[in-house]
Predict the structure.
Amino acid sequence: MIAAAGTCMAQTLEKMQWFNEPGRWSVEDGALSMFVTPQSDYWRISHYGFTVDDAPFYYATYGGEFEAKVKVSGDYKARFDQAGLMLRIDCENYIKAGIEFVDGRFNLSVVVTHRTSDWSVIALDEAVPCVWIKAVRRLDAVEVFYSFDDEHYTMMRNAWFEDNRPVHVGMMAASPDGSGFDAKFEHFKVTHLPDMRRAEWAARHP
């Protein structure tokens, strides 16, 4: 394991911690790089009939409403190799979103888990060097967006997510069928958003 504090976003990254720390990783110049643990994933029960909760996840804990985003790239090789952003309350409640390599094609992928997991994908016509993933938590929902330039974002999922619960927010990658791969995460940022209910109350009680 190698850990080096960078300059850009170093304060945020230094405060983060591992769930399922991989054998090899580093933080340099505000970017997290890792070699993804082989035969690891996040999934619960549905369709496949098994539960796994053992992939690398580098996170910090946030309350309230927020926007999180990160730039993701990887040397995807095997079926289901994936990397992206994850919001996690516990082992039965989480959302992971990013790029997933399936049957030789790149897909924008979102898995939403509330006791059991579901999976939605948007197939890409060609490989892309990177993708930006953004998640916005408002009240009891999370909107998930993707972008290829950090300017024009398209929503790919709106999912229920329990509000008023602390959330682990960070970067995850998995290699369920493969022997691992190199993944990189840049410009990770979480921005606090004013509580919507409180703002609405204040507007009614000037």
In short: Residues 1-11 have pLDDT under 50 and may be disordered.
